[in-house]
């Protein structure tokens, strides 16, 4: 609660937006006036009106409803992959930093090499291997997403593992696992939470990019990226079909970025110089 | 000398690992280059597979590819008969390179400029405006900017073409849109870095000496504050590369990313490999250049590394 009270007003607003978006995702079937795949070909390409707040698409589907359902898909992909890749990265980085020696060298070398692979290229290939559905995009984003967390975690562990209080714990025979869980991880939490707040918008954008390139999850599942891509085909005549999904992605990314900046500034003054 | 060999060796090893990883991933993708709506007769398939050596086990294919790669032969394109991957890359790389360089210049000029302004006028409306622009630039998906730009400049005002890459007019929108996100990142970075340097002791000394504000910033603070900005230039190159996928797609720019996506959807294996290797190579080189600059600009780095 204290965390919320100390926020500056942009991040309070951002936090509000995120809560609203989450509620929208959870309550989608009750909020959306129409189903996401209800077609009404007679009413195709309708301009925004009172019956269809954001207009309709080529098949007469209600864009407002589809955006609400898209919120569900896009946010759950972003949250799920961000959490999973952070957990993987944290475990990997902790082992690498804590054990040290040649294992550390080898493990970090692997991370360096994976960093050299352009992430979008890996995502595209992985997406095609595992299929263009939710599980495919989940694997694609996780495989590329854990590297940053692994590096941060290793650096954190390295800077904490030789401090006197850890040495003291060693000297009285505390087992390694307990030292990691009780003494090291709590001290390394701040930068990881900050990383999480940046990983979520990165994933939202990546999902939108993949869908936009025609390699994302398949329609009719309406993710925001899919909606923007579908709209793009009719950009000149019906720009609202691209602009509404785009604006929603923008607001979401902005909220997460503002919140992330604020978290970073307050939780970890040493990280201020990161992007 | 010793260090040069070490760097060279690690570069070669990295590229080798990248090639192997990409090859494995690429071969794992279901489907093949000869999958068409109407199935080809088995004999034709066998002959085609034999011609492109696709009947061999994957590791032999990899070795065969690498043998050619070392000799500068990137193999034939499977989808476009008679055209080599090298020719495709020679044609599209200059386009992507040009686009990347323009957007990098835009990103550096706009980013550093905004960052300096924000830092010098810290806490004023100018600072807030610059930083709102920057955080928006990071949050705006590039297709959204592209949509607005195309609607405004091509569709309504008719002053800029909406697609392709011919005249200078074609190059304005893609370059700016690709440079937007990097510019925003650089602006935020420059601001925080400059503010940090401005708080250091030697700046106080310079002030005490009676130097003018502009001289302090231009001569003393800027050089030191741009060093950390340099460190993100490596990842930035990667970011521009990623962004180029969307920008090339949206503006139908005939660059590497466009060819890569086509290669992937056609399962044109040599084309996928060729473009990926080139991307990885560019990224490795970008990081090397950054390291090099760093040592030149900050002599302290020489001893520590």
Give the structural class of chain B.
mainly alpha
H/E series of chain A, N to C?
Answer: HHHHHHHHHHH
Arithmetic mean pLDDT of chain A: 86
Shape descriptor of chain B: flat
Overall outline of chain A:
elongated
The oligomeric state is: heterodimer
Q: Indicate the low-confidence ranges of chain B by residue numbers.
A: none
Q: In percent, how much strand structure appears in the residues of chain B?
A: under 5%
Order of helices and strands of chain B: HHHHHHHHHHHHH
Radius of gyration of chain A: 22 Å
**Distance between the first and last residues' Cα of chain B:** 14 Å
The most extensive contact between chains is: A-B, 42 and 47 residues
State the total count of DSSP E strands of chain A. Answer: 0
Question: Which value, in Å, is the CA radius of gyration of chain B?
Answer: 24 Å
Q: Percent range for helical residues of chain B?
A: over 70%
What percent of residues of chain A adopt helix (DSSP H or I)? over 70%
Unreliable stretches of chain A (pLDDT < 50, length at least 5) are 271-275
Mean pLDDT of chain B: 85
In short:
The complex is a heterodimer of chains A (275) and B (305). By secondary structure, chain A is mainly α.
Observed structural traits:
heterodimer; A: mainly alpha; 11 helices; 73% helix; elongated; B: mainly alpha; flat
Could you characterize the architecture of this molecule?
- The complex is a heterodimer of chains A (275) and B (305).
- Chain A is an all-alpha fold.
- Chain A contains eleven helices and no strands.
- Chain A has helices at residues 2-5, 9-26, 28-31, 63-99, 101-116, 119-130, 134-160, 164-171, 176-212, 224-232, 240-267.
- In chain A, helix 4 (63-99) packs antiparallel against helix 5 (101-116), helix 4 (63-99) runs parallel beside helix 7 and helix 5 packs across helix 7.
- Chain A starts with a helix and ends in an 8-residue tail after the last helix.
- By secondary structure, chain B is mainly alpha-helical.
- Helix content of chain B is 78%, strand content 0%.
- Chain B has helices at 2-28, 42-51, 58-70, 85-120, 125-139, 142-156, 168-198, 201-208, 213-231, 233-250, 256-266, 269-297, 300-304.
- In chain B, helix 8 (201-208) packs antiparallel against helix 9 and helix 11 packs antiparallel against helix 12 (269-297).
- The longest helix of chain B has 36 residues, at 85-120.
- Chain B is flat.
- Chain B starts with a helix and ends with a helix.
- The mean pLDDT of chain B is 85.
